[in-house]
Amino acid sequence: MARKHAAPQRDGGERREGPSQRQLRVAEEVRHALSAAFAREEFRDPDLQGLQVTVTEVRASPDLRHMTAFVSGLGRELTAAQLAGLRRAAPLLRTRVARAVRLKFAPELHFQHDTALERAMRIEALMRRPEVARDLAPRGEGEGEEGA
Prior knowledge:
- This protein is α+β, with helices and mostly antiparallel strands.
- It has helices at 21-40, 80-88, 90-100, 116-127, 130-136; strands at residues 53-60, 66-73, 108-113.
- Helix content is 40%, strand content 15%.
- Strands 1-2-3 form a three-stranded mixed sheet, with helices on one face.
- The longest helix is centred in the N-terminal third of the chain and has 20 residues, at 21-40.
- It is flat.
């Protein structure tokens, strides 16, 4: 009886925690397909009328059956009603994605509001505060120089 050997792990025997290259590639293809669908699609849902959506990131589950799309409104915040409208439109968008991206299964789409820009702006504001800028200033600046 032949023994099956496990493939050696490239990272020194520890499991990687992040997504695989395949997950990243497929998620990016789904992001492009969703962006194209939002650019072309006219939604009948009143909560989505005239809505301009940016798909900032898509994360894929390991089996590629679920995709979480992080979305933000172009120029303004998405409301809870608009996010609910996107969730209602998920079956239609799933069909559009299935036509654009060749996968064994059409992935279930989940939408979440993207807060990365807001978080970055909050950090930027904190970094500009005088007490933080003082703490981040290089040591020795404004103090007497040693040497000579």
